[in-house]
Specification:
By secondary structure, the protein is an alpha+beta fold. It has 4 helices and 4 strands. Helices cover 42% and strands 25% of the residues. Helix 2 runs antiparallel to helix 3.
Amino acid sequence: MLPRITHWLQRLANPPLCSLEFTPTGVCCRRGTPPPAFVNDCGDVAREFDLTGGWLDVIGRDGRLQLRFSPELPAPSHQRFRNVLGVHLAGLRPPRRRPQR
C-alpha cells in the first residue's frame, strides 16, 4: 500500500506529460497525446510481459524525458519501456520555449 501512496504523491508533485494505463483489454492513454506508435509499442511490451494493470508516466525532469512506473509493473519490463521511449523521443518532446530577456 505504501508504494501506491508514494506513486500518487509523486504524480501530484510532478504531473506527467502523458500517462498510459495498462488494462486486461489493452493500453489506454489517460493523459496527454502521445504518438500512436508509442502507445502501440508500449502495448507490445505489455503483452510480452502479460501486464494487466498499472501505469506508465512520461515526465519532464531537468530538461529530459523520463519514465515513472507504477508499483504493479515488474522491474524487468522497465528497460524495455525505456527503449521504446528512446525510439519515440522526438514525438514526445514538448515544444521548446526560448527564455525571455
